[in-house]
Design goal:
12% of the residues lie in helices and 38% in strands. The chain has 241 residues and is mainly beta. The chain folds into two domains: 12-137, no CATH class; 141-236, Immunoglobulin-like.
Length: 241
């Protein structure tokens, strides 16, 4: 795989990239909310180049309204992919502090390693790095689906990763008025000190299409309150009854 981004897609290709949201008061120190976004673009063999271009372009207005941001400047490209390692070309010099540079690197790594031919990324002459090198930046709950602004139908499968008490992940659906119309929970594959994947299937009833919110959270072992909440604004499709 010597050519940058040699990943074939269908007639229309879906490219995902993470944007970051600054941590809320009370969240894990240094953590940011990693959120998946996706773009559908014409098929191309240079999907790594396209993915970085979309990441540099930044969030849509709806995504930006939730606090999302990109830290990658325009013009950064993958120069080659060899043995699972994607090498980046020069990144324009900035006066960013070390924390901000590391967040930018994490965005790039999570974006490029979505493709099966990329396991690690090399920045300049540094040693290759992968997702595990930035695991400490993740909050207790990460939602990988649905994405911000998606139109969702019931039943909906909510996916992501979590490191929460007893590996229990809770989900609720709110309608346009903020009323709770459904709740559910599931178990991550690991928890209470380790991160595991989760899938929670949840249904609801609504007679009209409307804005809504999918909230994913942990129930506090101390007082039963909702903590580490991730709220994803969506459009709820009508269920007809």
């Amino acid at each position: 795989a010597g050519r940058a981004g040699a990943h074939r897609r269908g007639a229309r290709g879906r490219v995902r990239h993470p944007t970051v949201r600054r941590s809320r008061p009370g969240a894990h120190r240094g953590a940011v909310e990693r959120r998946r976004t996706h773009r559908t673009r014409p098929a191309t063999v240079a999907t790594s180049r396209l993915a970085l271009a979309e990441l540099a372009a930044g969030p849509t207005s709806a995504e930006a309204a939730t606090g999302m941001a990109t830290l990658l400047p325009a013009g950064v490209e993958v120069t080659r992919i060899t043995d699972g390692v994607a090498t980046l070309g020069p990144i324009p010099p900035t006066d960013d502090v070390a924390e901000r540079r590391r967040l930018r690197e994490a965005q790039v790594v999570w974006t490029l390693t979505q493709f099966p031919t990329v396991r690690q990324v090399r920045f300049g002459g540094d040693a290759p790095v992968g997702r595990a090198d930035y695991a400490d930046l993740l909050p207790p709950i990460v939602v990988t689906g649905p994405g911000v602004g998606e139109r969702v139908t019931a039943p909906l499968t909510v996916t992501g990763t979590a490191d929460v008490f007893e590996a229990t992940v809770s989900v609720r659906v709110l309608d346009a008025a903020g009323r709770e119309v459904a709740t559910g929970f599931g178990t991550a594959s690991c928890g209470s000190g380790c991160r595991g994947g989760y899938r929670v299937v949840i249904g609801w009833r609504t007679v009209r299409e409307q804005r809504g919110t999918i909230e994913v959270y942990e129930v506090s072992a101390r007082d039963g309150s909702r903590i580490n909440t991730v709220a994803v604004p969506v459009r709820l499709a009508p269920t007809g009854g």
